[in-house]
Amino acid sequence: QTSQVVQVNGGGQSLTADKIVNMMPVTKRNPKDYIFGKVIGEGSYSTVYLAKDIHTNREHAIKVCEKQQIIREKKREQVRREKDALNILSNSGSSLFVKLYCTFQDTERLYFVMSYAKNGDLLPYINKVGSFDAACTRFYSGEILRALEHLHDLNIMHRDLKPENILLDHNMHIKVADFGCSKILEQPEAVDNTTILDENNPRQRTNSFVGTAQYVSPELLTEKTISPSSDLWALGCIIYQMIAGLPPFRSRSEYMLFKKILNLDYVYPDGFNADAKDLVQKLLVLDPNERLGTMDDQRYTSIRSHPFYNGLDFDTLHVTNPPPIY
Ligand code: ATP
Q1: Axis crossing angle, helix 229-244 with helix 134-153, rounded to the nearest 10
Q2: Could you give the angle at the alpha carbon of 197 between the alpha carbons of 155 and 166, nearest 5°?
Q3: Which atom belonging to ligand 1 lies closest to the Cα atom of 160?
Q4: CA nearest 135: which of 291, 275, 300?
Q5: What sign does the CA torsion over 260, 192, 180, 128 have?
Q6: What are the pLDDT digits (tens) for 115-173?
Q7: At 299, which helix (H) or strand (E)?
C-alpha cells in the first residue's frame, strides 16, 4: 500500500502514497490509528511497542508512558527533555537519530511515535562477537562521531551515550536514541566545543550526575559541569568497548568505578589495535578541554583525521554498506 501511486490535483503529478502522507498536515493521532503489536523494549518508566499505522501501513516503535508512573517517579523533566531533543533532531533531517513522528496522549498515557530501529541496539552485537574488527569499529564509531557532530552543532548534549542507546535500522546504520538525559544548551551563541560552561551559572550546572556510571566523564563526577566534551569521553569508552568487548572502567561498586574513572585506571588487552589505542587515549583525557576534538569548529576534524580513520569517508558513511559484524 505504501508504494501505491496515487494521482493528485487532477492527475498533474504522480506521487507515492508515502510521499502524500509526509506532505499532509499531521492531524492529531490517537491510539486507534495504530495496531499495537509485540513489546520491543521496556524502560524505567515506559514500554515500547512495535505498532503499525493503519493509514500508511508503516511500522513504528511507540513508546508508551503511564502518566501516574511519571509523576510518581518524578520523571516529568526526563520526558520533556526527550521530547524536546527528539523534536529538534526530527526537524533537522538527519538520519542518524530515531525520528519522532508525533506524540499524543489519552487520560492515562503519553505516546511517542518513533521510527522503528529493526535491528535493536549495538550491545548484543558487541557481546556476541566479543570484539569488533577494525573495519566495523571504524564504521560504527565513525557514524557515532557524525551523530555527535550534528548534535553538538545543534547545542544538544546526549549525556547518556552507550552501546544500548545506539540502535540499528533495517540497513544496519545507527539511530541514536534515548534523549531522556539530554541537555539543550539555552545560550547557543555562548557555547562552542572548547568551552566548559560557566560553573557559576546555575542553568549550566548539573545537580547530580546523569547518564550511566560506566560511561560518565570525570568532570561530571567532580565539577558537575556540562560540556559537549563529555560525549567525546563516552565515545572513547565505546570505541574501547567495541574492540575489547567490555567498557574500559568496570567495578561492582560504583564508588570504586568512579575512583577508577578519576584515576584513569584502565588497561588495554593484548592485541588492541595500535591506532585505536592512540585514539582512545586521546579521548579518555581527564581534562575535558584537552580531549581530541574539543578545539575543533563544527566538525570534529581532528578526530576525523586521526590515523585510525585513514581511508574512511565520513561524508558518505550513511550511503555506504556497513561492514558485516564479526
Ligand atoms: P530508560 O528510559 O529507563 O533510560 P530506555 O532508554 O532503555 O531506558 P526506552 O527509551 O523506553 O527506555 O526504550 C526501551 C527499549 O526499547 C530500548 O532499550 C530499545 O531496545 C527499545 N527501543 C526504544 N526505542 C526504539 C526504537 N525507536 N526502535 C526500536 N527499539 C526501540
Answers
A1: 170
A2: 45
A3: 4
A4: 275
A5: negative
A6: 999 999 999 999 999 999 999 999 999 999 999 999 999 999 999 999 999 999 999 99
A7: none
How would residue 27 be classed by pLDDT, with cut points 50, 70 and 90?
A: low
Q: Is the CB of 160 under 6 A from ligand 1?
A: no
Rounded Cα distance between 216 and 233, Å, is 8
Q: Angle at CA 121, nearest 5°, toward 268 and 257?
A: 40
Q: What is the pTM of this model?
A: 0.87
User: Which of 204, 200, 202, 199 is closest to 187 using CA atoms?
Assistant: 204
Annotated catalytic residue 315: no
Residue 46 near ligand 1, beta carbon < 6 Å: yes
C-alpha distances (whole Å) from 254 to each of 78, 161, 246, 260 are: 23, 18, 16, 10
ipTM above 0.90, yes or no: yes
Rounded to whole angstroms, the Cα distance separating 177 from 173 reads: 13
CA distance 26 to 100: 13
Q: Which atom of ligand 1 is nearest to the CA of 43?
A: 12
Of the residues 160, 178, 231, 296, which is catalytic? Answer: 160
CB 261 within 8 A of CB 233: no
Q: What is the pLDDT of residues 190-229, one digit of tens each?
A: 333 333 333 334 334 444 567 889 999 999 999 877 789 9
178 lines ligand 1 (CB under 6 A): yes
* Residue 52 main-chain phi, psi, to 5 deg: -115, 130
Alpha-carbon gap, residue 224 to 234, rounded angstroms: 16
User: Is the C-beta atom of 64 inside 6 A of ligand 1?
Assistant: no
Indicate which atom in ligand 1 lies nearest the CA of residue 175.
Answer: 27
Residue 280 near residue 292 (C-beta atoms within 8 A): no
